[in-house]
C-alpha cells in the first residue's frame, strides 16, 4: 500500500500520457510518459557500482536514463548546456549506455547513445556528468556531444568506454551498424568509430573500421570488451555483424599504444560453425576465463537460431626465427668436402627458432621445412644432407621456451656449375608451424602462433666474383625512378590517377666493375595497393618491395622494371623512396636513392540544375487544380569521386496568414541506378509514413516558418482584384522542407534526380488573393558536399542552389489598375494645394505688379507735393485745373 501512489501512473490510463506541444508542428497533444519507457533496454555498471538503465521509449521515445540505487529508483533529467541537447520525440536517448573517465577535467561520465538524434537522423552520443553525488539525486548535464556523419547510420546504437591505449583515460567506441558505403545495390555494411582520449579531449581515430565491409552485415550491432586476448598488455574488443552473409560474424580487434588496430585479428564466421546459426553476433559477452587457462573466453549469441556459443581462447606464443650460413660466398670451381665418394662445395646451414609467451608450456613440438636454392624454380645445383638427396627437408623438433633452438644442416653444391647458373645466389628458406595431432575436444594448454610472428625466413650465399684477389668489386649504381606521366612533379588527381606506373632504371657506370646481387627496394606509404609485382617481392608487412635486378650487372649495363601501384586510398601526398643496393662496393651512394613526393589533389565538384514540365500555364475563373512536375538534378563534374551529397528541397505549401494550403505534394521520387547506369541513388529524411520512391502525400514533412509572426500578404491590404503579380516562395509562404543524401558519384557521368509532382490549387489561390495577372510558384533546392575531403576546383565552382518557377498567367489582357475614391480626393486636394503654391510664388516674385503705373503715380505724388508760385497758382487758373483733372481721369 505504501507504493500505491508510485504505481498509480501505471494503473490509470489518464496518467500515462502527458500534454505537450509538438516541436515540429507547434500543435499541442498528448504523448506517452512511462507506458513504453523500456527501462533496461540497455544497462551498465559505473565504477562506483551504480546501475544505470537506458529507457529509450520514455516520453514518446525521446528517451532518458534511470539510476538504480538499492531501495529507490531515480529518473534522469537532462540539463541542456549551451543548447547542446534539444529533446524531441524519437531520439531514443538511452538506446545504449556505458560509463568511463574520458578527461581529467570531466571526471567520471555516463555515455548515452541516441541513434535517431539530430534533425537529419544522423544519431548522436551524449557524454553526461552528474551534478549531484547524492544517491537519490540523478540530474545530468551535458559535457560533450559526438554526432554521426551519415543519415540513418544509427550512430550510437552501441557504445563502449574502454582504455585501449592504457594511458589512464577511457576511449570511446561507437557503433553505427547501418552505415553504408554505397547506396546502390547494397548498404548497411556498418562501421565502428573510435574516439581516443589524450586526457584533455576525445579525438576520432583515423581509418575506417568496418570488418569485411559486406553489404547488409550491420557491423557494429554489438561491441564487447574481450579482455587481453593476445597478452600484450592492451585490451582487445569483439564486434558483432549479425547479418553478414545472412548468418553473422564476430570480429576481434587488438588494442595498442596508438589505439585500436584498424585490421581485424580474427574473423569468426557463422557459416563455418556446425549448423550455420543465424543472427550470430547480435549479443557478445565481455571476456571471462571459464577454463582456467588465464586467457579470457567469449560467449556469442545467435538470436535467430536460439543458440549461444562459447569460444575459448588458446594461449598465444610469439616466435622468432633466423638462418645462419657459414660462408658469405664460395668459389664455384673449388670443392671443399667429399660426400659418398664425390666432391662438393659444402655449406653449413643452421636454422634457429625461439618462442615465448605468457602461461604457455615450457616445451612445444614444431614442424619445420628447410628448402635450398628457392630462388630457382627447379634446383639443379645441389641438395641437403639426408638419406635421400633432396633440396628440402621436413622434420619435427621439440623446442624449449625462451631459448634459441638451433640445428645444423649441411648443404652440398655441385662444383663447376657455371653452365647451370653461377649468378643467382643460393637462397635457403625456413618455414615452420606447430605440430599437434587432431583432436575433437578443446585443449586449453594447446597454443597458437601470433599473427605478427614471421613463420617464413630466408638467407642466402653466393659465388665468389671475378673481382681480383680481394673478391670485392667496385661498382657505381645510378638509379632513376619516376612516376609515368608525372616526371615533372604534377599532382595526382584522385579518380583519374587511381593506378600509376613506377618506372625504375638502374645503370652501372662504364668505368667500374660488375655489381653483384643488385636489388632495388621501394618503401611504400600506408594504404598504397600493389597492382603488379613485376620481379619484386613484398617485405616488412607489405610496406616494402624488394626487386631483383640482373645479376651481375656488368659495367655499362642497365636494367629496367615497372611496377603498377594503386593510389586511390592515399590522402595528402604520395611519398615513395626507391633505393638501389649491391653486394659490390658502391663508389658513389649519392645517386642510389630517389625520393618521389607527389601531392594528391581532389578535383571534384557537383552542381544542381532544375527544370519544370510546365513553366507557364494560362488560367481563368474556371481553373481548379493543375499538376506540374519539378525536377532537380545533381550533376557530377571532374574526376574525383564524391561519396555523399546533401540535397535540401523546399516547397511552398501555404500562404502566410492563411490556413488552407494551395499546394500539395502528390509524389516525391528519387531515381536510382536501376533505372539508368548514369544515375545514383540516395535516402531522404522522411517521416515513417513516407517511402523512398513513389511516395504518397508527405504529410509528415515539417514546415519551415520564416518568422514567428508572419506578415500578411499584400492581398490583405488591397482588394483581391488589385494583386498584379504574386510570387509564392519561402519568403512569402510556409514551406515544406526535407533533406536527401545522394551518392556516390564515382565518375562525371553520374547524376541524381529528385522529381516532385505538385498539385497546385488555382481556385484556392483565387479565393485568397483574387486573380493576379501572374502567380509564380517557386520551389528551391540547394546542395552541400558531405565528404570531409578538401576539393581543389581547377575551374569555376558549379552552382550549389537553384529555383524552379512555374508561372500562372491570367487569361486575357492585363487588368487595368483602378484607384479608390479616396485616391481621387487626394489627387484633387493635391492639385489645389499646388495651384495655391504657384500663385503665392508668383505673387512673391512680383508677377501681378504694373511698373509704369507705379512710376506715374510716383510722379503725381511728387508734383502735388511741390508748392505753386504766387503768380501762377493752379487754384487760380481754372484751365490748368481742368487739364490736370483730365489727366487724372485718363490715368484712371
Automatic annotation (TrEMBL):
The lineage of its organism: Eukaryota, Metazoa, Ecdysozoa, Arthropoda, Chelicerata. Gene3D superfamilies: Bicelle-embedded integrin alpha(iib) transmembrane segment, Integrin alpha, N-terminal, Integrin domains. Chain A, domain 2, ntegrin, alpha v. Chain A, domain 3, ntegrin, alpha v. Chain A, domain 4. It is found in: Membrane. Belongs to the integrin alpha chain family. Its main location: membrane. It is a single-pass type I membrane protein. Pfam families: FG-GAP, Integrin_A_Ig_1, Integrin_A_Ig_2. Residues 315-466 form the Integrin alpha first immunoglubulin-like domain. GO terms for molecular function: integrin binding. Keywords: Cell adhesion, Glycoprotein, Integrin, Membrane, Receptor, Repeat, Signal, Transmembrane, Transmembrane helix. FG-GAP repeats lie at residues 81-137, 141-204, 205-262. The chain crosses the membrane at residues 821-843. The keyword Magnesium does not apply. Coiled coil: none annotated. Residues 856-881 are annotated as: Disordered. GO terms for cellular component: external side of plasma membrane; integrin complex. InterPro entries: FG-GAP (IPR013517), Int_alpha_beta-p (IPR013519), Integrin_alpha (IPR000413), Integrin_alpha_C_CS (IPR018184), Integrin_alpha_Ig-like_1 (IPR013649), Integrin_alpha_Ig-like_2 (IPR048285), Integrin_alpha_N (IPR028994), Integrin_dom_sf (IPR032695). This is Uncharacterized protein. GO terms for biological process: animal organ development; cell adhesion mediated by integrin; cell-matrix adhesion; heterophilic cell-cell adhesion via plasma membrane cell adhesion molecules; integrin-mediated signaling pathway.
Amino acid at each position: 500500500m505504501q507504493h500505491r501512489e508510485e504505481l498509480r501512473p501505471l494503473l490509470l490510463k489518464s496518467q500515462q500520457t502527458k500534454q505537450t506541444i509538438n516541436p515540429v508542428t507547434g500543435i499541442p497533444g498528448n504523448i506517452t510518459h512511462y507506458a513504453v519507457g523500456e527501462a533496461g533496454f540497455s544497462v551498465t555498471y559505473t565504477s562506483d557500482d551504480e546501475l544505470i538503465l537506458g529507457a529509450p521509449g520514455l516520453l514518446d521515445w525521446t528517451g532518458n536514463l534511470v539510476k538504480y540505487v538499492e531501495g529507490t529508483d531515480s529518473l534522469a533529467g537532462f540539463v541542456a548546456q549551451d543548447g547542446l541537447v534539444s529533446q524531441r520525440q524519437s531520439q531514443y536517448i538511452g538506446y545504449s549506455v556505458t560509463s568511463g573517465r574520458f578527461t581529467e577535467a570531466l571526471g567520471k561520465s555516463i555515455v548515452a547513445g541516441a541513434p535517431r538524434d539530430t534533425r537529419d537522423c544522423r544519431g548522436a552520443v551524449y557524454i553526461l556528468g552528474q551534478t549531484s553525488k547524492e544517491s537519490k539525486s540523478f540530474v545530468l548535464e551535458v559535457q560533450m556531444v559526438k554526432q554521426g556523419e551519415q543519415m540513418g547510420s544509427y550512430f550510437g546504437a552501441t557504445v563502449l568506454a574502454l582504455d585501449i591505449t592504457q594511458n589512464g583515460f577511457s576511449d570511446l567506441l561507437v557503433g553505427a551498424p547501418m552505415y553504408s558505403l554505397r547506396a546502390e545495390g547494397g548498404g548497411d555494411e556498418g562501421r565502428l568509430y573510435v574516439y581516443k582520449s589524450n586526457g584533455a579531449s576525445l579525438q576520432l581515430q583515423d581509418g575506417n573500421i568496418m570488418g569485411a565491409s559486406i553489404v547488409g552485415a550491420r557491423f557494429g550491432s554489438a561491441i564487447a570488451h574481450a579482455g587481453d586476448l593476445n597478452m600484450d598488455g592492451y585490451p582487445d574488443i569483439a564486434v558483432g555483424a549479425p547479418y553478414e552473409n545472412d548468418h553473422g560474424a564476430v570480429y576481434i580487434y587488438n588494442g595498442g599504444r596508438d589505439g585500436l588496430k584498424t585490421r581485424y585479428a580474427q574473423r569468426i564466421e557463422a557459416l563455418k560453425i556446425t549448423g550455420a546459426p543465424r543472427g550470430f553476433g547480435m549479443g557478445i559477452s565481455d571476456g571471462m576465463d571459464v577454463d582456467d587457462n588465464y586467457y579470457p573466453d567469449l560467449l556469442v549469441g545467435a538470436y535467430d537460431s536460439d543458440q549461444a556459443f562459447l569460444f575459448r581462447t588458446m594461449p598465444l606464443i610469439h616466435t622468432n626465427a633466423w638462418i645462419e650460413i657459414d660462408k658469405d660466398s664460395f668459389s664455384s670451381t673449388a670443392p671443399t668436402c667429399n660426400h659418398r665418394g664425390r666432391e662438393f662445395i659444402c655449406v653449413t646451414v643452421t636454422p634457429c627458432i625461439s618462442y615465448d609467451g605468457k602461461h604457455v608450456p615450457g616445451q612445444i613440438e614444431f614442424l619445420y621445412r628447410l628448402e635450398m636454392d628457392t630462388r630457382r624454380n627447379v634446383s639443379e645445383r645441389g641438395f641437403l644432407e639426408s638419406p635421400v638427396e633432396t633440396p628440402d627437408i621436413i622434420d619435427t623438433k621439440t623446442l624449449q621456451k625462451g631459448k634459441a633452438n638451433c640445428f645444423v644442416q649441411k648443404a652440398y653444391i655441385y662444383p663447376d656449375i657455371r653452365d647451370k647458373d653461377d649468378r643467382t645466389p643460393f637462397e635457403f628458406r625456413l618455414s615452420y608451424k606447430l605440430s599437434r595431432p587432431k583432436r575433437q575436444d578443446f585443449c586449453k594448454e594447446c597454443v597458437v602462433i601470433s599473427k605478427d610472428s614471421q613463420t617464413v625466413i630466408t638467407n642466402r650465399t653466393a659465388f665468389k666474383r671475378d673481382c681480383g684477389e680481394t673478391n670485392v668489386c667496385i661498382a657505381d649504381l645510378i638509379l632513376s625512378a619516376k612516376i609515368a606521366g608525372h616526371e615533372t612533379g604534377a599532382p595526382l588527381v584522385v579518380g583519374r590517377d587511381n593506378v600509376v606506373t613506377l618506372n625504375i632504371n638502374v645503370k652501372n657506370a662504364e668505368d667500374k666493375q660488375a655489381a653483384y646481387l643488385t636489388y632495388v627496394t621501394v618503401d611504400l606509404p600506408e594504404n598504397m595497393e600493389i597492382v603488379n609485382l613485376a620481379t619484386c617481392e613484398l617485405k616488412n608487412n607489405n610496406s616494402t618491395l624488394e626487386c631483383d635486378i640482373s645479376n651481375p650487372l656488368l659495367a655499362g649495363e642497365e636494367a629496367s622494371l615497372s611496377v603498377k601501384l594503386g593510389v586511390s586510398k592515399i590522402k595528402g601526398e604520395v611519398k615513395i623512396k626507391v633505393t638501389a643496393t649491391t653486394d659490390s662496393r658502391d663508389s658513389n651512394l649519392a645517386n642510389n636513392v630517389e625520393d618521389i613526393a607527389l601531392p594528391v589533389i581532389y578535383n571534384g565538384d557537383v552542381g544542381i540544375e532544375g527544370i519544370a514540365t510546365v513553366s507557364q500555364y494560362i488560367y481563368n475563373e474556371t481553373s481548379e487544380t493543375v499538376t506540374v512536375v519539378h525536377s532537380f538534378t545533381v550533376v557530377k563534374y571532374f574526376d574525383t569521386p564524391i561519396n555523399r551529397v546533401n540535397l535540401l528541397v523546399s516547397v511552398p505549401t501555404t500562404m502566410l496568414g492563411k490556413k488552407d494550403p494551395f499546394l500539395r505534394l502528390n509524389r516525391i521520387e528519387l531515381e536510382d541506378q536501376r533505372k539508368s547506369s548514369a544515375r545514383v541513388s540516395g535516402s531522404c529524411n522522411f517521416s515513417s509514413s513516407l517511402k523512398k520512391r513513389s511516395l504518397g502525400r508527405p504529410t509528415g514533412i515539417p514546415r519551415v516558418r520564416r518568422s514567428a509572426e508572419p506578415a500578411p500578404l499584400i492581398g490583405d491590404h488591397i482588394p483581391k482584384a488589385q494583386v498584379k503579380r504574386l510570387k509564392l516562395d519561402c519568403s512569402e509562404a510556409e514551406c515544406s522542407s526535407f533533406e536527401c543524401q545522394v551518392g556516390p558519384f564515382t565518375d562525371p557521368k553520374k547524376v541524381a534526380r529528385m522529381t516532385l509532382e505538385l498539385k497546385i490549387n488555382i481556385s484556392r489561390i483565387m479565393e485568397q488573393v483574387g486573380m493576379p495577372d501572374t502567380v509564380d510558384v517557386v520551389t528551391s533546392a540547394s546542395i552541400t558536399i558531405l565528404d570531409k575531403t578538401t576539393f581543389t576546383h581547377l575551374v569555376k565552382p558549379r552552382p550549389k542552389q537553384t529555383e524552379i518557377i512555374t508561372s500562372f498567367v491570367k487569361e486575357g489582357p492585363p487588368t487595368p489598375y483602378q484607384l479608390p475614391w479616396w485616391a481621387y480626393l487626394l489627387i484633387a486636394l493635391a492639385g489645389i494645394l499646388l495651384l495655391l503654391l504657384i500663385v503665392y510664388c508668383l505673387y512673391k516674385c512680383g508677377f501681378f505688379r504694373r511698373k509704369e503705373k507705379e512710376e506715374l503715380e510716383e510722379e503725381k505724388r511728387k508734383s502735388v507735393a511741390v508748392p505753386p508760385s504766387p503768380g501762377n497758382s493752379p487754384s487760380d487758373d481754372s484751365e490748368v485745373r481742368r487739364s490736370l483733372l483730365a489727366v487724372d481721369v485718363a490715368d484712371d
